[in-house]
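User: Sequence in, structure out. Go.
Assistant: Echoing your sequence, followed by the structure tokens.
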Amino acid sequence: MYEAFYEKLESLGIVPVVVLDKVEDAAPLAHALMAAGMKSAEVTFRTACAAECIAAMAQAEPDMCVGAGTVLTPEQADTAIEAGAQFIVSPGYNEAVVRHCIERNVPVLPGTVTPSEVTAAEILGLQVTKFFPAAQYGGLNTIKALAAPFVGHRFMPTGGVSTGNVEEYLSCPSIIACGGTWMVKPAMFADGDFSEVQRVAAEAMEVVAKVRG
């Protein structure tokens, strides 16, 4: 299940976690990320315009893999999918959301930070889950500890990932990709200039190329 998506996720290496307050910022942000070689975005449902932003980014950059983050209910998942989200990410493990996405054949990455949560995800056929908040739950050491008994399971750490540690994270075979906000912080484009986003995103993708080849 989801093998094609997992392959794509691994090739992406880094998924920027985007919080947008204005739909007008969606398209230029998508253009900046794509120009940097960062061909994905996880638009979080923390703002009222999330679905509109997903649609705007998907329209602006059709080749971009746009997903929805902070999805807490099946209804939010439906809203995101109808807007064009290609994958769904949840901060925790919500079985209702996971089952709903499976029924709709849309890749879902629920958050799992304990053996019980990883087990629950694997029972439903998921081989990849989000690990959030990564820094607070022990980061790479915890991921390696979880990966030992759950052979083949892989994680997407998010929360506390930065330019300083992303290379170390990506070097671990149990990590399929990293989620991060450091290249898309709202303050970086508050004035409507997305050049800093493009520059930092390009630097991040250089790390991906260095580690993954």
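User: And one key feature?
Assistant: Residues 44 and 69 are 4 Å apart (CA to CA).
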